[in-house]
Amino acid sequence: MELEKYQKIFSQESSRYLEELDSVLLKVENDLRDQQLWGEIHGKIHSVKGMARALSMMELANFCHAMETWCKLFQDGDKTPDERVVQLFFDGTDLLKAFVAGKGEISEPRDLESLRSISEDLAKDPEALADQAEPEMRTSVAPGKIDRIRVDYALIESLLARSQEIMMLEKSLPPLTQDQISAGIGSWINHYISMLKGLYFQLAQLRLMPVQDFGDLFVKTIRDLAKSYNRDVKLEVVGGEIEVDIGLMDRLREPFMHLLRNAIAHGIEPPDEREKAGKDREGKIVLNAERHGDQLILTVQDDGRGLDREAISAYLEEKMGMSPEEMNSLSNEKLLNIICRPDFSSAKETTQLAGRGIGMNVIAQAIEYLGGTMKIHSEPSRGTRFVISLPLSLSIIYAVLFRLGKYVLAIPTSHVHTIENMGSEPSREISQFCDLGSLLRVDDETRGNGHIIRLRPSVTSGISQSEDEGLGISADAIIGNMPLMAIPLGELLAKTGLFAGVGIMENGDISLILDVEKLQAAAA
Amino acid sequence: MDIFIFEAAGHYFGIEARYIYRIADGVVIVPVPLMPGCYEGLIYYRGDLFDVVDMGRLMENEVSTLHDDPYIILLKWNAGKLGLIPDRVVGMKWVEDNGGTGTVFNERGDVVKLMTPDEIWSKLAGLAYGT
Question: Based on the structure, what is the number of domains in chain B?
Answer without folding.
Answer: 1
